[in-house]
Automatic annotation (TrEMBL):
Domain Nitrite/sulphite reductase 4Fe-4S, chain residue ranges per copy: 224-400, 497-634
Catalysed reactions, semicolon-separated: hydrogen sulfide + 6 oxidized [2Fe-2S]-[ferredoxin] + 3 H2O = sulfite + 6 reduced [2Fe-2S]-[ferredoxin] + 7 H(+)
GO cellular component: chloroplast nucleoid; sulfite reductase complex (NADPH)
Stated name of the protein: assimilatory sulfite reductase (ferredoxin)
PANTHER family per record: SULFITE REDUCTASE [NADPH] SUBUNIT BETA (PTHR11493:SF47), SULFITE REDUCTASE [NADPH] SUBUNIT BETA-RELATED (PTHR11493)
Sorted UniProt keywords: 4Fe-4S, Chloroplast, DNA-binding, Heme, Iron, Iron-sulfur, Metal-binding, Oxidoreductase, Plastid, Thioether bond, Transit peptide
Protein species of origin: Escallonia herrerae
Main location: plastid
Listed transmembrane segments: none
Cofactor entry: [4Fe-4S] cluster; siroheme
Compartments (UniProt record): Plastid, Chloroplast stroma, Chloroplast nucleoid
Subunit structure: Monomer. Interacts with ferredoxin.
Amino acid sequence: MTTPFGATNATGIASDPNLQINRFNGLRSSSHSLLLLNKRLHKFPASSFTSPSLIRAVSTPVKPDTSAEPKRSKVEIFKEHSNFIRYPLNEELSTEAPNINEAATQLIKFHGSYQQTNRDERGPKSYSFMLRTKNPCGKVPNKLYLAMDDLADQFGIGTLRLTTRQTFQLHGVLKHDLKTVMSTIIRSMGSTLGACGDLNRNVLAPAAPLVRKDYLFAQQTADNIAALLTPQSGFYYDTWVDGERILSAEPPEVVKARNDNSNGTNFPDSPEPIYGTQFLPRKFKVAVTVPTDNSVDILTNDVGVVVVSDDDGEPQGFNIYVGGGMGRTHRIETTFPRLAEPLGYVLKEDILYAVKAIVATQRDNGRRDDRKYSRMKYLLSSWGIEKFRSVVEQYYGKKFKPCHELPEWEFKSYLGWHEQGDGRLFCGLHVDNGRIKGTMKKTLREVIEKYNLDARITPNQNIILCDIRRAWKRPITTALAQGGLLHPRYVDPLNVTAMACPALPLCPLAIAEAERGIPDILKRVRAVFEKVGLKYNEAIVVRITGCPNGCARPYMAELGLVGDGPNSYQIWLGGTPNQSTIASCFMNKVKLHDLEKVFEPLFYYWRRKRQPSESFGTFSTRMGFEKLKELVDKWDGLPESSNRYNLKLFADKETYEAMDELAKLEDKNAHQLAMEVIRNFVASQQNGKSE
């Protein structure tokens, strides 16, 4: 095997000796790094190097001399001794206990599952498992959707959860049902392999089924990257379908890129040529999109890939961005959310090799001692982009070209009815917090089954129905409306862009409510909007998480609430509607019942002091947090002139007071109830009409 380190490679790139990096930092003793490097460079026989402190990330791990070994996290030890993510999970699954042990709990993540308990229940722990599917581009074949719908009722809690990474989550599966559920998913054109764990997660791409060269190419690229970085050692199929491989044929370019080892990216003769025994230091996230379309939160990923086309719309290559990530830890300032930054441009035929080189760089140099710092963003932060680029180029074998200039990003929800471009239509449906349940679940099932539709999950926790014939539009519109799936014009604009993670009661990391709390919080935001005189169509991006890990990407929101204690939140401000700017922490430990004390002055002064068309996030940044905190601290309620009845809705005080009394029964105010009545009336009149 050849290596670019310390030599001139075939492309004529001379390695900078100042940029030589120990190749397997965290996987072995650093005192042997040059020895292993020399071994690779000159192809010395393995028998010439028999140091007991060497830990190889290959198919047969060598037990290290722990006295000379650098510190590694417990999860690294579990992975090393697991026989490629099999042991002790295979033994634990066969026991009568309702749960699995600590090592197996870590390993089952690679299979796409988390062990959970219901934290609302007191007494003995009630164990269950959450399963997460892997759906590149959010694609859900008809057969898989119907299978997931059935599994939710038969083995779950009766609901399906759409995630912010375009996948399903199925909650409440008992241990003894895992194999049945997993095998059903696999045999229904689905998979959960790699949906969790220290490897590449689901690859995002715009969910819209637009028949356009750039969109189709972005989605095909996402599929190829997902295939390239899928584990190869068979542990998943051995565990759930007794070793039967149920796979579709891979494109030849994917197989070629995976097998290529011309620049030392692979572990020769390993069942996992890219991952080795140790896989990656932490999760790894990739997104692909086209210019302007930021439906995927492109800059929050470890790797962001953007199609670059010529003037005729023909894809030519890709801009690559690296180092994004949301997770952080409270009260540890050395952990932080981070936006990806430009790495460079590659031709379209080189994208798989470039992504593989980035993965290898993180694999060999990311920290494995402390998992708080194991994401690639910390490697970028430590090295800087120039050093990172130089090391990646040595794995890649080429120099990156400068990124192409791109237009401004836009958030695209794809809600409502749209032309696909092939004569058919697609319909984007808003799903509050991604939770499909009750009448909505029944209606979706009926429509998808009756019309044999495929679906796609969006990164904003919504769902798209694809390939709809024009003749089906009216009956589908009527059926959806009757099931509570209204046209987006009848959904509160605050709800359209809002997101929350599941949090309590099942997530073990949650310290505050998110999904269960956001409906009430959005109503309170809407009430404050009305109180300070903001219009109904003026909305902001609100995202809420129950802990600082940031699954709903709250650090990109204009108003982000991050749980920092029971019924307590950090408030983050400064994100933008197109998700291109990261927010900052504005306040800590704001109690749930005190949110209006912060919201009222912020929204009041946004209405009064904003510049033309200035978003709330941009306003917050321009004003500065010191000034905003001063306004919050001095707030003593709205000026008297601002407290007036909304005469557009209520012609007299008596009507207002009567409506207000009715509204209180539903925990709303008069204006909210009146608007809801009006919207429902209009929606009922629209049912069955052509859009």
